[in-house]
Amino acid sequence: MNARKLIVGPFNRVEGDLEIKLDVEDGRVAAAYANAPLFRGFEQMMVGKAPEDALTITPRICGICSISQSAAASAALGAAAGVAPAPEGMRVAAILHAIENVCDHLTHFNLFFCADFARPAYAGRAWHARAVDRFTAMEGSGARACVEARAQILHIVGLLGGKWPHTLAIQPGGVTRAPTARDCVRMASTLASFRRYLETVVFGAPVESFAEIATADALVGWDKGDAGLFMDIAADLALGQMGAGPGRYMSFGAYPLPDGRAFASGLWEAGHLQPVDTRDIREDLSHAWMHGATAHPSDGRTDPDEDMSDPAYSWCKAPRLGGRTVETGAFARQVVDGHPAAVELAGRGSNALNRVAGRLLEVARTQLLLEQWVADIAPEARFMDSVTLPQTGDGEGLVEAARGALGHWIRIEDGRIAGYQIIAPTTWNFSPRDAAGTPGPVEAALEGAVVGDDEDTPLTVQHIVRSFDPCMVCTVH
Amino acid sequence: MNILWLQSAGCGGCTMSLLCAETPNVFDLLGSAGLSFLWHPALSEQSGGDVRALLGGVESGDIPLDILCVEGSILTGPKGTGRFQMLSGTGRSMMDWVQSLAPRAAHVVAVGTCATYGGVTSAGSNPAGAIGVQYDGNSPGGALPAAFRARSGLPVINVAGCPTHPDWVTETLMLLAAGRLAESDLDQLARPLFYAENLVHHACPKNEFYEYKASAEKLSQMGCMMEHLGCVGTQASGDCNIRGWNGGGSCTKAGYPCINCTAPEFEEPQHPFTQTPKFAGIPVGLPSDMPKAWFMALASLSKAATPKRVAENAVADRVEVAPSLKSGKS
Questions:
Q1: Could you tell me the pLDDT band of residue A443, with boundaries at 50, 70 and 90?
Q2: What is the DSSP letter of B127?
Q3: What DSSP letter does each residue of A411-451 carry, written as one string?
Q4: Strand, helix or coil at B109?
Q5: Is the pLDDT of residue A166 over 80?
C-alpha cells in the first residue's frame, strides 16, 4: 500500500481560514480532517453586553454573511421579546437578506469555485479555453461581469440599509428606514438591470426558464450561459460522482414573511421530509479545542482549550441533529422546499455538482422573489414597530444564510446578555468528528477523492471542499 | 506595484466591501494604476503548496514585495503564542508571519479597524488577545512596534473602517502607486487624511435636525440621533455622507447611528451602541472642536427656535410636513 499524509493550506477562495489534513492511500483519500484554525471568541465577547448590542457586533462575525448574522440576531431578540417585526419591515428585511444571499452565490460561482477550471492543469480539455476566458482569477470576463453586477445590485442594500456589509438596519421591530415610492421604482430598475445580467451572462435564457426547470436531466444538461459552461465542465470532470455528503438536508426556512417563510424549513432524507426540531441539536466538543460537555446551544458555552490538546484538531464544535450529521446550504434549501429538479438530484445521490446547481437554481428563484417583494412594498405602511426587550428571557433566531442554516441562541438576565451561542452553516458542514468518531460532512465527502501522485494540493479535494462554499469565519466565530 | 494580502483575524468584510468598488470595477481600477495581487486569499488562483512557496519567497527576499495589506486583527493568544490563528498549512501563527513579512514590504497597509487598532475582534473581554498591526487600541505599538517603518520609511498606513469603504482602500493603494502618499498625508492615528479629515457629520442628511437639536427618540424616526440614539457622527472621522456607500447610502441615511467605526476602541463605547449616555439629562460627548459652553448655549437657543416642521418630522419615519413655499410676487 502506498500511503502518505498531506496538509492542504493555505486553502484559499473559501471565506476565512481552513486547513485540511488528508490520509492518502493508493491514490485516494482514506481519511480527512477539517481544521478551522482561527478562534476569535464572539460568544464570549457578547456576555455582559446590552442585548441590542448583538445587532451591532454579531454581523461583524462575517463580512460575507453579515446580513444573515444580523437577521439571526434580530430574530433571537424578537423571540426573547415575544414579538414579530412590522409586516412591511419583514418584507424589507427579506429583500436585504436575499440580495446578500444572491451576491454570495454569484461570488462563489465566479470568483471562488470556477476559477479552478482555468488552471493550466486542465489545459487540453475541450472546455479549457472557454473556462480561461470566463473564469480566470481576477482576469476572466465572467469574474469582471460578476463584480460589476454584484456591486450594482448592492445599491439596493445601500438604499435600504445604508451600506454593505455591516448594516444596522434590521431590528426586532422591523427596519430603520421607510422606503418611499421613489425608492421602489429605483429598486425595480436595479433589479431589471440585474435580470439582464442573469439572462445574458449567467443563464443565457429568461430567468423563469431556469427557475422552472422541472427535471434533474434538464438541469445538469443546461447548455446556455456560464451555467451551461459549468455543466459541461462538471460532466467532463465527473463532479456529479464526487463529494458525497450525508444525504440529510436541513433548512431552517428562508425569509420569514407575514404569511410564512418563502423557502420552507425541514429535514429531508431519502425522499422523506420532516420538520426540524431544534431541541434535537447538540454541539459535541470531543474533537474541538473546547472545554465543557455536549450541550444544546441554549445551554452551551464557549471555553477554549488554550493548550489545544489532542485528540481535538479544530476550533469548530460539532453540531449534530438527533445525533447525526446533516448538510445545509442552497441545495439543501431547494430540496427541502421541494424544487422538483433539486429533489430528483438529491434522490440520485449526494455530490459536488448538486451543491453548485442548487445555488444556480436559487439565484434564479430569488430574482423572481425579489421582483415580487419590491413590487409589493406599501410605502404608506409602518416599517418598524416599537419593541421592548425583556430584562430576563431567552430567544432562538433561525435564518438561512447563503451557506445554509444559521441559528442564534440568546439568554438575557438582569437586562444583560448572560449567554450567546451561534451555530453557523459551516459549523454543520465542516464540523470535526464527534464522540462516536463520525466525521463531519466535508470530512466524509472527501473520503475516496482521487489524489494524483504528484499533487500536494489535490484538485479534486479543492473542488469538493469549495462545492460546500465554506464560510470559515462564521464557523468558529 | 505588487500586493500581498493577508487575512488575519477579522470577518473578511473589508475584502467583500472592496469588491463593491465601481466605475471601474475593482480589478480594472487597481490594474489601471499598475497594481496587481501577488496573492489574495479570496481572489487568487494559487492555493496550498503554491502559496507556501510564494510566502517563503517573499520572506527570503527572493520575491520583492511592494505592498503588504493586512486585513483583520493580530491574535496574540493564547498565552502570547498567537496560536488562536495559525496560517493554515504553515504551522506558524499569523502573528509570526506578519512580523516576519512586514519588514520586507515597501509599504504596509492595515485594512479595516481590526487590522489598524484591534477592532471588533478585541471587543468585550478580548478573548483571543486581538491587537492591531501597529496599534493596540489607542496605544501605538501592536504586532509591530511603534517605531516600525516599512522599507519606504512610512509607518503602517491605517485604513480604518468597519468595514472600509472600497474607495478608501483603492485610493490609498493608488496614491502609493503614484508615489503621492507621504507621512504628512496621514492623521495622528496614521489614517489617510483624504477621508479622515472629514467628519461623518459632514453632509449628513439629518443636519437640519442637528441644527435645531430636533431629535429622533426611536430608531426609524428621521430626527438627529445624537441626543438619544448614540450617534457620534459629529466626532467620527470619515467622508461617509459626502462619498456615499453602495450607490450613495450611509449609516445615518439608513436611519441608524454612526458608531465611529473608523476609531480605535469604537467596539467598546462603554454604553449600548444605540443609546446616548447622559449626565443630568445632557448627552456626554460633544462635537469635535466645540467648546462646551457654546454648545450648550447654542443648543438651548436652537431648540427654542425649532420650526414646527422640523420638530414634527424629527419624530416621524417619513416627511410629514414639507417645507412651506415662499409666496410669489403678487
A1: very high
A2: T
A3: EEETTEEEEEEEE-HHHHHT----TT-PPPHHHHHHTT-B-
A4: strand
A5: yes
Which residues of chain A neighbour B89 with C-beta distances below 8 Å? 7-11, 19
What would the pLDDT profile of B228-248 be if each residue is shown by its tens digit? 999 999 999 999 999 999 999
Q: What domain range is A128 assigned to?
A: 3-476
* pLDDT one-digit tens code per residue, B283-292: 887 888 888 8
Q: Which of B140, B263, B267 is nearest to B199 (CA)?
A: B263
Q: What are phi and psi of B255, to 5 degrees?
A: 90, 20
Q: Dig out the grid coordinates for A323 from the structure.
A: 445525533
Provide, rounded to the nearest whole percent, the portion of chain B with pLDDT above 90. Answer: 92
- Coil, helix or strand at residue A76: helix
Residue A7 parent element (H or E): strand A3-8
Q: Are A133 and A141 in contact (CB under 8 A)?
A: yes
Residue A462 touches chain B, beta carbons under 8 Å: yes
- The phi-psi region of residue A31 (left if phi > 0; otherwise alpha if psi is between -120 and 50; otherwise beta) is beta
HSE at residue B182, side-chain half, CA atoms within 13 A, is 1
pTM, two decimals, is: 0.98
Question: Helix A352-376 to helix A225-236 angle, to the nearest 10 degrees?
Answer: 160
Q: State whether B142 and B207 are in the same domain.
A: no
Report residue A377 as a C-alpha cell. Answer: 412594498
Query: Are the C-beta atoms of B196 and B171 separated by less than 8 Å?
Result: no
Helix (H, G, I), strand (E, B), or coil: what is residue A298? helix
Angstrom distance (rounded) from CA A161 to CA A158: 5
Number of domains in chain A: 1
> To the nearest 10°, the Cα dihedral for A345, A349, A355, A359?
20
* CATH number of the domain within which B60 lies: 3.40.50.700
Which residue bears the cell 460561482?
A: A109
**CB-CB neighbours of A195 under 10 Å:** 17
pLDDT of residue B327: 78
CB A52 within 8 A of CB A376: no
- In this complex, is the C-beta atom of A473 within 8 Å of any C-beta atom belonging to chain B? yes
Contact of A340 with A174, CB cutoff 8 Å: no
Amino acid occupying residue A295 = A
What is the rounded distance in angstroms from the CA atom of residue A170 to the CA atom of residue A172?
Answer: 7
B15 to A16, A155, B1, B43: CA distances (angstroms):
11, 17, 19, 9
First to last CA, chain A: 40
Rounded Cα–Cα distance for residues A347 and A361 (Å):
17
A420: CATH:
1.10.645.10
Tell me whether A180 touches chain B (CB under 8 Å): yes
- Does residue A105 sit in helix, strand or coil? helix
Binding residue per annotation — A128? no
In a mutagenesis test of the A interface, which of B6, B11, B265, B268 is the best target, namely the one with the most A β-carbons within 10 Å?
Answer: B11
> Is A301 within 8 Å of chain B by CB?
no
Burial class (CB in 10 A: 0-12, 13-18, 19+), B211: middle
Burial class (CB in 10 A: 0-12, 13-18, 19+), B288: exposed
The count of domains in chain B is 2
Same domain, B79 and B142: yes
Tell me how long chain B is. 330
Domain with B116 in it: 2-196
Could you say which DSSP state residue B278 is in?
E
Q: Are B126 and B117 in contact (CB under 8 A)?
A: no
Find the mean pLDDT for residues A388-414: 98
Test A166 with B250 for CB contact under 8 angstroms: no
Tell whether residue A474 is among the known ligand binding residues. Answer: yes
* B140 and B249 share one domain: no
Asked which of B163, B196, B229 is the last residue of a domain, the reply is: B196
